[in-house]
């Protein structure tokens, strides 16, 4: 597979993921790979197999926001053929600008993947308090600053 960011890479079946309906904004692209990055951050790269220049940083939203919570719509569970909660893996897109302190994570539209079938879907949460630009790094609370 060709990646503009990583060059030629070999992708295994355990890294592949299929978006049967594509991603919002990229509906024509269906085949992706979730790739490890050689960095000390809990993020990965979602790389399109069909468009070498399309890659998105993703991270486990629960790592950054342990209190993150929402209900998966029934239609998404059926579409992804999810049978057990442990079949689910959740990712969120991360935007990393030049100033890393301004990085954001999209909690409004999580990517849900069935780990068994490797099928995924980006779900847009309706009537949610979450945004598509939550700060990736939360500012410490007053108690944490005072120590």
What does this entry look like structurally?
Keywords: Bacterial flagellum biogenesis, Cell projection, Chaperone, Cilium, Cytoplasm, Flagellum, Translation regulation. The chain is mainly beta. The protein has a single domain, classed as BH3618-like. 10% of the residues lie in helices and 31% in strands. The chain is globular, with a radius of gyration of 16 Å. The chain starts with a strand and ends with a helix. The mean pLDDT is 88.
Query: Whole-number average pLDDT?
Result: 88
SSE string, helix = H, strand = E?
A: EEEEEEHHEEEEEH
> CATH H-level name... which superfamily?
BH3618-like
Low-confidence stretches: none
- Describe the largest sheet: 7 strands, mixed, barrel
Helix content: 10-25%
Outline, from the CA principal axes?
globular
Q: Helix segment count?
A: 3
Which structural class best describes the helix and strand composition? Answer: mainly beta
CATH class bucket: Mainly Beta
């Amino acid at each position: 597979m060709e990646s503009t960011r990583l060059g030629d890479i070999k992708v295994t079946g355990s890294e592949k993921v299929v978006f049967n309906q594509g991603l919002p904004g990229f509906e024509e692209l269906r085949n992706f790979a979730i790739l490890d990055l050689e960095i000390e951050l809990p993020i990965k790269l979602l790389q399109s197999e069909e468009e070498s220049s399309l890659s998105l940083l993703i991270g486990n939203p629960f790592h950054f926001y342990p209190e993150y919570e929402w209900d998966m719509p029934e239609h998404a569970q059926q579409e992804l053929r999810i049978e057990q909660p442990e079949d689910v893996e959740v990712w969120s897109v991360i935007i990393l600008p030049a100033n890393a302190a301004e990085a954001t994570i999209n909690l409004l539209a999580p990517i849900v993947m069935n780990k068994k079938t490797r099928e995924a879907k980006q779900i847009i949460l309706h009537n949610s308090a979450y945004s598509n630009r939550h700060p990736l790094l939360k500012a410490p609370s007053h108690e944490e600053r005072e120590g």
